[in-house]
Design brief:
The complex is a heterodimer of chains A (421) and B (211). Chain A is 55% helix and 9% strand. With 421 residues, chain A is α/β, with parallel strands linked by helices. Chain A has one domain: TIM Barrel (Alpha-Beta Barrel). Chain A has a 5-stranded parallel beta sheet. The mean pLDDT of chain A is 95. Chain B has 211 residues and is an alpha/beta fold. Chain B has 2 domains: 75 residues, Orthogonal Bundle (Methyltransferase, Methionine Synthase (B12-binding Domains), Chain A, domain 1); 120 residues, Cobalamin-binding domain (Rossmann fold, 3-Layer(aba) Sandwich). The mean pLDDT of chain B is 92. Chain B is 55% helix and 11% strand. The longest helix of chain B is centred in the first third of the chain and has 20 residues. Classes of the chains: A alpha/beta (421), B alpha/beta (211). The interface between A and B is medium-sized, with 34 and 32 residues.
């Protein structure tokens, strides 16, 4: 290949990148793009596509990059949510002795998705400890319960209680066991860096091929931060009655910490889309009043904080959120993406069309069990109905399900080319 | 007093309900009457859930409150709970193989139990053979299959196919639920019905097991 051809190719790729990025940017800004954009997102479908095990998809960095690249070159999405940071976790989780997940080859079969273990990781009486000193609570209570390497830290005293000559006596808590824990964490850290590097290299490679990233930093709603990771589903729901003031105070404490973490994470990356998946605020999981009190105000602070920093919150509203639509309309217009799993997008468009770019929502059941014709018709309706005037990105309900039929995925990606001219 | 207890439970007034129970039994009240009041209260909770006034957190709190009340009154029952309480029928339930989720299933179990059904819970990640063996052994009129992940679509289908192959399908009503389950999944798995929440499961059982 001559040098001019390479330059020509690079120019084409750069132009493709800009075109795709503009298509996404237009959709976010509620302008009408040249056609409806589509983003590639999955947890483990690339394993099914390439015929590798889910276990390999959690352990083999190079393989995941290779098969995802093959998929991207075939489907030509407008942006790619690289599966790396969500799935290439196996080696590091083993080294740290991570307890909140069971993953393929480690508690579930080699061809199953990883699964979260819903337990109480923070006791009901510990809200005050969190509120007083979240960092110390994390180091000595939460982290030792969720990862073996942190277990020796459970005995550390609150360092902020010590000063001057007492610091001499602080050192005696840093025992051989604590040192061994830190040493194990250093091993995990090196592995995590390898996983992180593979994600960064993949991002650079994708950009060179003309494909922007679909999301990068990821964080929780403050309510989910306590529900998923600390109190467990039962604990948090009981707290709505028994400890509502403590829960609110703890979320007040956590919200700026979550936001700051996201700003730091996102600030290091050219991709401005920040992924916020919602788990416990959907219809049925709490009343509209509970949503307005315990879920939305703190989440809104995160969303608005991200927008003010020039970032684009991508909020995945799992399940059906129809009763929330009016409430969640209260954000700056044209600055975010709301991705709905089961909420009727036509209804969402009517309420939120002037406020936020919508994304979704070909059902997982259709992608897994339907026909390409089913998918085409469904996508056509969305593209022509919801996407007609812009402000819409086509995708599955939660991306491409792990078991989706290839011909159905192809039909979904073809539909934006066929129907949004 | 018992009316007040029914109201307190149904209105989620936990402290008051527990105090009323303690006062009632320490005053020599019949513990069985407390359990009957709990059932009446749960009828109200179920109705409010169906009416869209109550949501999952209320079911969780009611479940936890009932456990606390049971712990107070059950040791006082002579000869255990009255055997005269008739069960409305047996439901076999479990999360299909490959899926470890049980939050939704546990809520369904709880709502079926308080609605008078005898629920046999096989737990999570239940192999196809276990469902087949248990259906053969117990001959329940209703089987409920739960699953949160999309992989559960195939696990549900495999389970129901195996029941058909074993000649056990015809006498059995099968409901599925959880996660992204919908009509397309019902049709794919050949289940009789799907449900979006725990009260759907109760309604289906009432429909199927009506005398």
């Amino acid at each position: 290949m001559s040098e001019t051809t390479i330059t020509k190719d690079a120019e084409d790729m750069a132009r493709d990148f800009d075109e795709r990025q503009k298509r996404i940017d237009d959709a976010i800004a509620l302008r009408k793009p040249d056609r409806v954009p589509i983003i590639y997102y999955t947890m483990f479908w690339h394993a099914s596509y390439a015929g590798i095990t889910f276990k390999e998809a959690m352990y083999n960095y190079a393989k995941v990059s290779e098969v995802t690249k093959r998929i991207v070159l075939e489907l030509k999405p407008d942006a790619v949510a690289a599966p790396h940071r969500a799935t290439l976790l196996g080696p590091t989780m083993e080294l740290m002795g991570y307890q909140q997940l069971r993953w393929p080859g480690h508690g579930v079969g080699e061809n199953y998705s990883y699964q979260y273990i819903d337990r109480e990781y923070m006791k009901p009486e510990e809200y005050d400890d969190y509120i007083e000193d979240p960092g110390w609570f994390y180091l000595t209570r939460y982290l030792p319960r969720v990862a073996d390497a942190f277990a020796p830290m459970a005995g550390l005293p609150q360092p902020a209680s010590m000063q001057h000559t007492r610091l001499v006596y602080l050192t005696r808590f840093f025992t051989e066991e604590v040192a061994a824990g830190f040493s194990q964490l250093a091993k995990a850290g090196q592995e995590a860096q390898r996983a992180f590097d593979s994600a960064s290299e993949f991002q650079v490679e994708m950009a060179a091929l003309g494909f922007p990233m679909g999301q990068m930093a990821t964080g929780p709603a403050p309510y989910d931060y306590f529900a998923d990771n600390m109190r467990g589903s039962k604990g948090i729901m009981l707290d709505l009655f028994r400890r509502k003031d403590k829960l609110l105070a703890a979320m007040d404490r956590a919200t700026p910490i979550i936001l700051k973490g996201l700003l730091e994470m996102a600030g290091q990356n050219p991709c401005k889309i920040v992924f916020l998946p919602m788990h416990w605020g959907l219809d049925g999981f709490m009343s509209p009043d509970q949503f307005k009190t315990f879920f939305w105000p703190h989440l809104r602070k995160v969303i608005v904080g991200l927008i003010e920093a020039g970032l684009v919150p991508l909020v995945l509203w799992e399940g059906d959120c129809t009763s929330r639509l009016e409430t969640i309309a209260d954000i700056p217009a044209g600055k975010a993406i709301y991705w709905f799993e089961r909420t009727d997008l036509f209804r969402a468009k009517a309420v939120l069309g002037d406020v936020v770019c919508l994304r979704g929502n070909v059902p997982a059941s259709m992608l897994n069990t339907g026909t390409p014709q089913d998918v085409r018709e469904y996508c056509k309706k969305l593209i022509e109905g919801v996407g007609r005037d812009g402000g819409f990105i086509l995708d599955g309900g939660i991306g491409i399900p792990d078991e989706a039929r290839l011909e159905n995925v192809r039909a979904m990606f073809q539909s934006v080319r066929d129907f949004s001219a | 007093m018992l009316e007040e207890l029914v109201r307190a439970i149904a209105d989620m007034e936990e402290e008051l309900a527990l105090q009323l129970v303690r006062d009632f039994v320490s005053g020599g009240g019949d513990p069985q009457q407390v359990l009957d009041a709990c059932r009446d209260a749960m009828d109200l909770v179920g109705k409010r859930f169906e009416a869209g006034e109550y949501f999952l957190p209320e079911l969780m709190l009611a479940g936890d409150l009932l456990e606390q009340i049971s712990a107070i009154v059950k040791p006082l029952l002579v000869g255990g709970p009255q055997a005269s309480v008739k069960t409305a029928g047996t439901v076999l339930i479990g999360t299909v193989h490959g899926d470890l989720h049980d939050i939704g299933k546990n809520i369904v179990v709880f709502m079926l139990e308080v609605s008078g059904y005898n629920v046999i819970d096989l737990g999570i990640d239940v192999p196809v053979e276990d469902f087949v063996d248990k259906v053969r052994e117990l001959k329940p009129p209703v089987l409920a299959l739960s699953g949160f992940l999309t992989l559960a679509f195939d696990s549900m289908k495999e389970t129901i196919d195996a029941l058909s192959d074993a000649g056990l399908r015809d006498s059995l009503k099968i409901m599925i639920g959880g996660g992204q389950v919908d009509e397309a999944v019902r049709s794919y798995t050949n289940a009789d019905a799907f449900g979006l929440n725990a009260m759907d499961a109760v309604s289906l059982c009432r429909q199927w097991l009506a005398a």
